[in-house]
Amino acid sequence: MELAGRKQIVLAAVVEHYLRTGEPVGSKAVLEQGTLNVSSATIRNDMAALEREGYLEQPHTSAGRIPTVQGCRYYIDHLMQPYVLTETERAEIDQRLEQGGANAETVVQNAAEALSEITQLAVVNTSSLPEFTVISQVEVIPAGKRLYALLMITSSGDIKNRMCRLSVDLTQEQLTFFENFLRENLVGQSPRDLNPAQRQKLAVAMGGYMLSLSPLLHAVYELSEQFYQQNINISGEGKLLLRPGFDTGGLVRFLEEKNQLAGLLKQAFSGVQVIFGKEDSPFAVTNSSLLLAPYQMGSHPGGSLGIIGPVRLDYRKLIPYTEYFSQSLSRQLGQFVEEEHKEGRSDDGE
């Protein structure tokens, strides 16, 4: 619902005062903003109307009013004047992300940790497999009686490993066959290519070795899936657990529900979205907010960042800051994709 001009000014004054102080706001505080030349009675009438319409609420009969989730939403969507980052602030973000890491996965994780450190809030992030990534190395390492370590490395520098226990020890001949088989059939392939049909084809190709080596082959498939499954990482949750009045129990339960968390993070599509915690929503952390920002991996979606904090945040600055942060991260990741693409074309040429 569209609000009349004076009501917009009153609502903006209440929201900004509350976000800054955390205290209920009275008509006197609104008048001190200096943008309205009316009486206190007129302001009180407007505040009462805003309460009836669901934008404000009165925590106590003798207190002023505070914004509801609906009021905060209206302010962010229609009334807030976003802060414009300075060239120095942009350069500092770019410089921070340029120190990211040796591969795309570490760049994203380091970026999330940097954003948590800068904002002093919890940051969750998802990451996806870069488009041109292929398997560059697979190793099987004896690690004990009937125990073998599997190591898989991609062209983007990401590494996954897991242990596999067999019912019998492998002979050196079986181990050599398996290593050669993996090198011939997996190296140079994308982990996404190991679909069920391809897996069946490889199992048949193993011939007489299939019975003894099938547990290891299955473990290799599971390892490859870890690369393209959406990973969820959390940074700085401890920063919120110490905040007075914050729903720490709700936060812990929310962070433990990885599937629910992944579903929310998939909602990030462009710009920065703000989701307020409510009991009847997937983000059921009361008195809190979740800022979602997507990032790109070249021309494709790479994942998203989610900043979790209390309702009382400086959205005017935090939203454009987070948006530029995700844009800078996308540029850094674009360089990895471009380099991988060049290497892929170079290998094709050879």
TrEMBL record:
The molecular function GO annotations come to: DNA binding
Q: Tell me the Gene3D superfamilies matching this sequence.
A: 3.30.450.40, Heat-inducible transcription repressor hrca homolog, domain 3 (3.30.390.60), Winged helix-like DNA-binding domain superfamily/Winged helix DNA-binding domain (1.10.10.10)
Annotated ranges, domain Heat-inducible transcription repressor HrcA C-terminal: 105-319
Which one GO biological process term can you cite for this protein? Answer: negative regulation of DNA-templated transcription
Task: List UniProt keywords, sorted A-Z.
Answer: Repressor, Stress response, Transcription, Transcription regulation
Give the family per the record: Belongs to the HrcA family.
What HAMAP family is this protein classified in?
HrcA (MF_00081)
Described by its record, this protein's role is as follows: Negative regulator of class I heat shock genes (grpE-dnaK-dnaJ and groELS operons). Prevents heat-shock induction of these operons.
- Its protein name is Heat-inducible transcription repressor HrcA
Classification from the root reads: Bacteria, Bacillati, Bacillota, Clostridia, Eubacteriales
